[in-house]
Write a structure and sequence with these properties.
28% helix, Pnp Oxidase, Chain A, 34% strand, 4 helices, 9-stranded mixed sheet
Length: 147
């Protein structure tokens, strides 16, 4: 995936708070809007699986070595977040963490890997445990590895 030439090419999440935070994050060059509820956040640019449009969302993250981990909790909904479905179809993404922007490959963790990192993710954002308890859906965890 190539990085957008300008922000007009990117469709930001329709959720108002996400759009506002993404705008602040991007317009500040990654110096503002980098946390949500005290948890570090990144900007994820990905390709829509049906439209091919470049999309952007803000996601909390954890770490596993040099990789970033994002959680498809969708607030404990019984449905996967749309960004996750798009990553399954097109795993090449763009990531901004703070002032750094880089290309990455998004890979869903295996059940064994997910269980290994889950305690760390709950430590980063304790509500993940609540979200997991309120759905029968297996909440996916995605590894973002620099390309």
């Amino acid at each position: 995936m190539t990085q957008p030439r300008n922000d007009e090419e990117v469709q930001v999440s329709p959720a108002n708070w996400v759009a506002r935070q993404a705008e602040l994050y991007e317009s500040s060059g990654g110096t503002k809007g980098t946390t949500q509820l005290g948890v570090p956040c990144l900007l994820l640019d990905y390709t829509g699986r049906r439209t091919g449009a470049l999309r952007r969302t803000v996601l909390m993250y954890g770490r596993d070595g040099d990789d970033y981990l994002i959680v498809g909790s969708n607030g404990g909904s019984d449905r996967h977040p749309l960004w996750y479905l798009n990553l399954l179809a097109v795993p090449a993404v763009g990531v901004r963490v703070g002032t750094e922007r880089f290309p990455a490959l998004a890979v869903a963790l295996t059940p064994q890997e997910r269980e290994r990192v889950w305690p760390h993710l709950v430590e980063v954002f304790p509500r993940y445990a609540e979200y997991r308890a309120k759905t029968d859906r297996e909440i996916p965890v995605v590894r973002l590895r620099r390309r």
